[in-house]
Write a structure and sequence with these properties.
The chain is α+β, with helices and mostly antiparallel strands. The chain is 37% helix and 19% strand.
Length: 563
């Protein structure tokens, strides 16, 4: 390492000496170059995004005094004309769906349902929520559906619903609830103010609108006398703890960000232009919006982008900057000669460094530098034809009527490589929801519960010799038991298959993030890198490096609550 340090030090000294000489040659009097030339950006926004655009522009100008940003309102010929950057939402469907227009997502909006804060059934509504089937019933029977059809203990009062005319809100909700759009005949109003007024006057009403339509910008809350109506996303007849985020605006926008809210009801906020921006001023502004500017999304009632979307957008601009050259003033040929000399010296030193690293690669490997991949929905394998349970186990009936069961890919990604397991013996009876297996990693353990009822007929003996097979092949060689089922036809009605399982996993990732957010106290901030990578993605094998106390917490607050 000593030789390497000398090599790097030499590189830096040569670089600074030559570049310093170049700068004094180009500017012999040592005068400061003019860096305060004003740069102007033009932004136009649709009316509902004007506050967001203004806040972003004001903050960017504060951080960059040499930049002037002009804000205007969108007209039909402005939206894709000239050098304007347009801020648009899904309501500008013609532009959003126009493939010839360049656009980039900068945030997320949400379509919501609201009710009167004085609804006499408010407590029951908040406790039960409405399911996708409830919305389908309501939309299909305007003026005929009563509250007792939607919630247990509801009154016989008819539910009137309102939506804003010429908005895609009701069509998106129709798509979400798989309703016939042509059959919807609720009360149409002209604008958000009329919708708010209608719901405030009718204590039994429901309103369909965008989140920003009912947001009080000054208070950063929902407008007075109106409440968000909870959606029972997992359709179990109650608002579970991980679904209970409708009480205030900040909780709601964060929940929409992590995927707790139905994704079908989340739309995009876009920056659009006639073609992909290539000038450095515009790229610098949009790059800032992707980074520090994201905090202004929540402040304006929107949700921030996922880290993967942010990274993708930044990569787009990185490639643009790499191919864009801006020359602000002439450079004398003598300076270029010095630059070429510097580049030549760097090339020689780089070649020496490469040789050094190759020669010493074995010692560098001893430093145990590793990269932990991200853990998200795309990481999970979910074979078709298998039934999955909320306890993160799976079941599959063989041709002989016996059922193989094991743990799912989600759970083994969380624990990391399993070092030992404890299994029940053949002949033992198990009931659905009873402990059937204990998985152990370096002395830390989790109890796993059975997805079905029946009699264990066979253990997978391979797991006694190599428990890590569960990690490498959870659905094939890593099966755990063969079980003779007792109530197969009835119990599979409570299991997931295919797309239903994948949709449920979205809620599980939201629950997982919530678990670590609540478990990581300020005194445990040192462990934050174990949970989240840069950009907010969960790390793979996220539980592996924590101590037994966190595993016990995970057992009681995550695994046991799923039974």
């Amino acid at each position: 390492m000593k030789n390497l340090s000398v090599l790097i030090t030499g590189l830096l000294l040569i670089f600074y000496c030559i570049t310093g000489f170049c700068s004094t040659t180009d500017n012999p009097q040592g005068t400061q170059q003019n860096s305060t030339d004003e740069k102007t950006l033009n932004i136009v926004s649709s009316p509902e995004l004007n506050s967001l655009a203004t806040n972003l522009a004001t903050e960017y100008e504060r951080l960059n005094p040499s930049v002037k940003i002009n804000i205007g309102h969108i007209t039909d010929n402005q939206i894709i004309a000239g050098n304007n950057i347009s801020f648009i939402s899904e309501s500008n469907s013609e532009t959003v769906n126009n493939e010839t227009v360049w656009k980039m997502a900068i945030g997320r909006d949400a379509i919501v349902t609201v009710i009167n804060a004085k609804n006499p059934m408010l407590n029951e509504i908040n406790r039960q929520g409405l399911t996708v089937e409830d919305f389908a019933l309501l939309l299909a029977n305007s003026g005929k559906t009563s509250w007792n059809s939607l919630i247990e203990g509801g009154s016989n009062t008819t539910v009137n619903y309102y939506f804003i005319d010429n908005e895609p809100v009701i069509s998106d909700f129709a798509s979400f609830s798989k309703s016939d759009l042509s059959a919807i005949n609720g009360s149409s109003v002209a604008n958000p103010s009329d919708l708010i007024s209608a719901v405030q006057k009718d204590i039994y009403a429901i309103g369909f609108c965008k989140l920003t339509d009912v947001r009080d910008a000054a208070a950063n809350e929902i407008v007075a006398k109106i409440k968000l109506l909870p959606i029972d996303k997992n359709r179990n007849g109650r608002i579970d703890n991980f679904e209970n985020f409708y009480g205030n605006l900040n909780a709601f926008t964060r929940a929409a960000w992590v995927g707790k809210y139905p994704r079908e009801l989340c739309g995009g906020i876009y920056a659009a232009a006639p073609s992909k921006p290539t000038d450095n001023n515009t790229i610098a502004f949009l790059t800032w919006v992707m980074a520090d500017g994201q905090k202004f999304m929540n402040k304006n009632g929107y949700s921030i982008l996922a880290s993967s979307e942010i990274s993708s957008n930044l990569e787009t601009f990185a490639s643009t900057e790499a191919t864009t050259t801006v020359i602000e003033k002439p450079v004398e040929s003598k300076t270029w000669a010095y630059i070429l000399i510097v580049l030549g010296v760097i090339a020689l030193l780089f070649a020496g460094a490469v040789g050094y690293f190759r020669k010493n690669r074995s010692s560098l490997l001893d430093e145990d530098i590793s990269f932990t991949p991200a853990f998200d929905e795309n990481s999970i394998i979910a074979p078709q034809g298998l039934y999955f349970d909320k306890t993160h186990t799976w079941a599959f009936m063989e041709k002989d009527g016996m059922v193989k069961i094991g743990i799912d890919d989600f759970l083994q990604h969380i624990t990391g490589t399993i070092s030992r397991i404890r299994m029940k013996e053949p002949g033992e009876m198990v009931r659905k929801g009873e402990k059937i297996l204990t998985i152990i990693k370096d002395g830390k353990q989790l109890n796993i519960y059975s997805p079905i009822s029946g009699t264990i007929r066979e253990q997978n003996q391979k797991l006694n010799l190599d428990s890590s097979i569960i990690n490498s092949s959870p659905f094939a060689d890593g099966w755990v038991y063969t079980v003779e089922p007792k109530n197969w036809l009835r119990e599979i009605q409570f299991l997931f298959m295919g797309e239903n399982y994948k949709e449920w996993l979205q809620d599980e990732f939201a629950r997982l993030k919530d678990f670590f957010a609540s478990s990581m106290k300020s005194s445990q901030a040192v462990y934050a890198h174990i949970v989240l990578q840069d950009g907010g993605e969960l790390t793979d094998n996220v539980l592996a490096d924590f101590g037994p106390e966190v595993w016990e917490d995970f057992q009681t607050k995550f695994i046991d609550t799923s039974k």
